[in-house]
C-alpha cells in the first residue's frame, strides 16, 4: 500500500491532499478515511470519486501543526475488509 | 470494545466462510455424482444403484440447505461488520459485491434443495446450471475478483480450482455413502471405477491451477515461509500430497487386487480422504481471509528471523518472571536497558515495544507450552513403546491426560485455589476460569474413556473413533483461523509453530482412524505413524517460543 502523506512523515499545512493506493480493487462507496486530530477528535473525510479502482482520494483543510493520524478502512471488491493507521505530522 | 467485537466477527466470518466452502464443495461433488457417477448401466443391479441414488439425493439436499444456512449467516456477519465499522445503513451494504454474490449463492442453494426434491429428470438438467451459478458467484468473493493485474486469468484459474476441488473432494462423501448403501461388489466396483476416473482428471486440474496460482500469489521463495499466505499454501500442499498418496494406494488397489479384497480397504482409505480433504477446504477458507503474499513484501519475515525464533533452545520449565524495571535477558533486540511501561526498549519483530507485562505474559505462555510438550512427548513415546508389544504397561499412556488436567487446574488460573488467594467456589464466576476447569474435566473424562477403549481392545466400535476424531478436529481448528492485520510478522512466527502441529495432529488422527478401520493385516504402517506424530507434536511444543 502507498500513501500520501507517507507513514510517519511531515507535511506542510494547513491544507493537505490525501491519497491511498492499494494492491486490490476497492469499493470506494463503502470505504472510509478518518482523521484523528492532535486533541483526539475524529472526523470522517469525504472521499472524492475514484479515478482508478485501487485508489481513494480526499483532502483535509485547516490543519493546525501537530501529530495526526489517518485511520482507513476499505472494502475490497472480493468482500474482504481491512483497516490501518497512518501517523503523520503537520508543520 | 468495538474493535474486539469486530475481531470476533472477523473470526466468525472465517468459520462461516469455511462452512460455506465445505458445503459448496459437497454440493458440486454431489451434483456430479448424481448426474454422472451413479448412473444405471447394463450389468449393474438396478436396485443397488437406486439405493445409492436415493442416499446421494438426500446428501445433496442436506449440503444445499447447509450451504444456504452458512451463506445466510456469513452475509449477516459480514454486513454487520461493514455497517458498524463504515457507519452505513443496511441499504448501503446491499450493493456490495459480497452481498450480491452471497444472495446469488443463497438463492441457487435453496433452488438446488428444491430441485433435488422434485422430478429427477428435470433435476439432471437444472442441477449442473445451478452448480455453475453457485461456483461463479462464489468466485466473486475470491482474491481473483479484486486483483488489479491478471484478473481474468486468475478468475478462470480460480473457477477451475474450485470446480476440481468440489468434484473430487466434495464427491468423496457421496462415494463413501454409496459404498455403504450398495450391497453387492459389482455395483461398488462400478461406482468406484467411475469416480476414480473422474477424480484422476480433477487432481490434474487441481494441481495445475493450484501451482500457477501459488506462483502468482506468493511470488518468491522467501515468502513461502515468510508470510502467513505462503505457510497456509504449504499446509494445503502437504495435505494434498497426503491425499495423493492415499489416492495412489486406491488406484493400485483397484488395478492389482481382487475386487473382494480391495473394496474393504478402499472404503476405509476413502474415509480418511474425506477427513483430510475437508481439512484442506477449511485451510482454504483461512487462506481467503489473508492477503496474498505478493501484497506483503515489506511484511515478509526473513529466514534469519525464523531461524532466530526456532533454533533449538533449552525448554523453559520454570516461571522466572522479569521484575519491573529490571534488566531482562530475553528479547529479540537490545536487552541492555530497563524495561518499564514508560521505557520499553525491547521490540518484537514488528517493532512493537515489549513492556515487562508483555514479556512476562510470553514467559508464562512459553513455560505452559513447554510443560505441555513434556506430557505430549511422554504420551507419544509411551504409545510407541506400547506399539512394540514389549511393554504392556505403556498402554496406560492415556493416564497422562490427567496430568494435563492437573496442570490446567493449577497453572491456568494462578489467582485461584489452591495456589492463589481466591476461593475455589468464587473462581467459578470467572468465565475464563470456568472454561479452563471445563477443559480440565474434559481431559480427565477423555483419559478414562480412551483407557477403557484400549483395555477393551475395541477395534471398530464408535467409542474408539472418538480419539482420532478429536485429534483430527483439533488439528483442523489450528489450521482454520483468521489472521491479524497488525503485528503481522510476530503473528506469522506464532503461526509457523502452530501450523505444523495442526498438520501433524490431522495426520495423527487419520492414521489412528485407519489403524482402527483397516483390516487387521493392513494396520502396521498407520499404527506406527500416529504415536510418532505425537512425539513430533511434543517436540514442537518443547521448542515453542514467543520471543
Please, could you describe this protein's structure?
The complex is a heterodimer of chains A (91) and B (547). Chain A contains no helices and 8 strands. In chain A, a hairpin with a 5-residue loop joins strand 7 and strand 8 (81-90). Chain A has 91 residues and is mainly β. Chain A starts with a strand and ends with a strand. The relative contact order of chain A is 0.34. The model of chain A has no long low-confidence stretch (mean pLDDT 91). Chain A has strands at residues 2-4, 9-11, 16-21, 32-36, 42-44, 55-60, 66-75, 81-90. Chain A has a 5-stranded mixed β-sheet, with no helix packed on it. A 3-stranded antiparallel β-sheet of chain A has the order 1-3-6, with no helix packed on it. Helices cover 73% and strands 1% of the residues of chain B. Chain B starts with a helix and ends in a 5-residue tail after the last helix. Chain B is built from 20 helices and 2 strands. Chain B has helices at residues 2-37, 46-85, 90-94, 97-117, 120-139, 143-146, 151-168, 172-181, 185-218, 222-226, 228-256, 259-288, 303-310, 356-388, 400-411, 424-427, 431-456, 466-479, 488-517, 524-542; strands at 346-347, 353-354. In chain B, strands 1-2 form a two-stranded antiparallel sheet. Chain B is mainly α. Chain B is globular, with a radius of gyration of 25 Å. In chain B, helix 1 (2-37) crosses helix 8, helix 2 (46-85) runs antiparallel to helix 4 and helix 7 runs antiparallel to helix 9. The chains are: A mainly beta (91), B mainly alpha (547). Chain A binds chain B through residues 23-25, 27, 29-32, 44, 53-54, 73, 75-84, and chain B through 10, 78, 81-82, 85-88, 92-93, 95-98, 101, 140-148, 288-289, 291, 294-295, 485.
Amino acid at each position: 500500500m502507498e500513501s500520501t502523506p507517507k507513514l510517519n512523515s511531515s507535511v506542510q499545512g494547513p491544507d493537505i491532499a490525501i491519497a491511498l493506493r492499494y494492491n486490490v480493487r476497492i469499493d470506494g462507496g463503502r470505504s472510509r478515511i478518518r482523521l484523528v486530530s492532535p486533541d483526539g477528535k475524529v472526523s470522517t473525510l469525504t472521499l472524492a470519486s475514484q479515478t482508478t479502482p485501487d485508489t481513494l482520494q480526499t483532502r483535509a483543510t485547516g490543519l493546525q501543526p501537530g501529530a495526526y493520524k489517518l485511520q482507513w478502512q476499505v472494502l475490497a471488491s472480493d468482500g474482504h475488509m481491512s483497516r490501518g493507521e497512518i501517523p503523520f505530522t503537520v508543520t | 470494545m468495538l474493535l474486539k467485537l469486530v475481531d470476533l466477527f472477523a473470526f466468525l466470518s472465517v468459520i462461516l466462510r469455511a462452512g460455506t466452502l465445505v458445503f459448496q464443495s459437497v454440493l458440486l461433488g454431489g451434483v456430479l455424482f448424481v448426474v454422472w457417477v451413479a448412473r444405471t448401466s447394463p450389468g449393474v443391479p438396478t436396485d443397488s444403484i437406486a439405493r445409492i441414488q436415493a442416499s446421494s439425493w438426500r446428501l445433496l439436499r442436506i449440503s444445499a440447505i447447509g450451504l444456504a444456512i452458512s451463506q445466510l449467516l456469513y452475509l449477516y456477519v459480514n454486513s454487520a461488520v461493514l455497517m458498524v465499522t463504515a457507519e452505513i445503513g443496511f441499504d448501503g451494504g446491499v450493493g456490495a459485491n459480497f452481498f450480491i454474490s452471497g444472495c446469488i449463492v443463497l438463492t441457487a442453494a435453496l433452488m438446488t434443495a428444491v430441485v433435488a426434491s422434485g422430478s429427477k429428470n428435470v433435476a439432471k438438467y437444472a442441477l449442473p446450471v445451478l452448480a455453475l451459478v453457485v461456483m461463479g458467484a462464489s468466485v466473486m468473493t475470491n482474491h481473483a475478483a479484486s486483483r488489479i493485474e491478471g484478473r481474468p486469468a486468475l478468475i478462470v484459474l480460480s473457477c477451475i480450482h474450485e470446480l476440481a476441488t468440489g468434484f473430487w473432494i466434495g464427491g468423496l462423501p457421496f462415494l463413501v455413502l454409496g459404498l455403504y448403501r450398495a450391497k453387492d461388489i459389482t455395483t461398488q466396483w462400478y461406482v468406484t471405477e467411475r469416480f476414480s476416473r473422474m477424480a484422476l482428471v480433477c487432481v490434474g486440474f487441481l494441481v495445475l491451477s493450484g501451482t500457477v496460482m501459488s506462483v502468482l500469489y506468493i511470488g518468491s521463495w522467501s515468502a513461502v515461509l515468510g508470510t502467513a499466505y505462503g505457510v497456509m499454501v504449504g499446509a494445503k500442499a502437504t495435505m494434498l500430497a497426503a491425499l495423493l498418496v492415499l489416492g495412489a494406494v486406491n488406484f493400485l488397489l483397484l488395478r492389482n487386487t481382487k475386487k473382494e479384497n480391495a473394496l474393504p480397504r478402499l472404503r476405509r482409505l476413502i474415509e480418511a480422504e474425506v477427513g483430510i480433504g475437508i481439512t484442506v477446504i477449511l485451510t482454504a477458507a483461512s487462506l481467503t481471509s489473508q492477503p496474498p503474499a505478493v501484497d506483503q513484501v515489506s511484511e515478509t519475515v526473513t529466514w534469519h528471523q525464523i531461524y532466530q525464533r526456532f533454533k533449538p533452545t533449552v525448554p523453559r520449565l520454570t516461571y522466572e518472571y522479569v521484575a519491573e524495571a529490571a534488566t531482562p535477558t530475553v528479547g529479540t533486540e537490545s536487552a541492555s536497558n530497563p524495561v518499564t511501561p514508560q521505557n520499553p526498549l525491547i521490540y518484537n519483530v514488528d517493532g512493537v515495544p515489549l513492556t515487562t507485562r508483555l514479556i512476562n505474559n510470553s514467559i508464562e505462555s512459553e513455560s505452559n507450552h513447554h510443560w505441555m510438550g513434556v506430557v505430549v512427548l511422554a504420551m507419544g513415546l509411551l504409545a510407541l513403546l506400547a506399539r512394540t508389544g514389549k511393554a504392556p504397561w505403556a498402554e496406560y499412556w492415556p493416564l497422562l491426560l490427567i496430568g494435563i488436567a492437573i496442570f490446567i487446574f493449577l497453572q491456568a488460573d494462578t489467582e485461584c485455589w489452591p495456589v492463589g488467594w481466591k476461593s475455589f467456589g468464587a473462581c467459578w464466576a470467572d468465565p475464563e476460569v470456568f472454561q479452563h476447569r471445563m477443559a480440565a474435566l474434559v481431559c480427565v473424562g477423555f483419559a478414562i474413556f480412551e483407557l477403557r477403549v484400549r483395555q477393551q481392545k475395541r477395534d471398530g466400535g464408535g467409542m474408539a473413533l472418538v480419539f482420532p476424531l478429536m485429534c483430527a478436529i483439533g488439528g483442523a481448528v489450528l489450521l482454520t483461523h483468521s489472521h491479524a492485520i497488525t503485528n503481522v510478522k510476530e503473528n506469522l512466527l506464532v503461526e509457523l509453530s502452530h501450523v505444523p502441529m495442526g498438520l501433524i495432529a490431522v495426520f495423527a488422527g487419520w492414521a489412528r482412524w485407519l489403524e482402527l478401520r483397516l483390516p487387521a493385516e493392513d494396520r502396521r504402517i498407520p499404527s506406527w505413524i500416529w504415536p510418532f506424530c505425537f512425539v513430533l507434536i511434543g517436540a514442537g511444543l518443547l521448542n515453542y517460543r514467543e520471543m
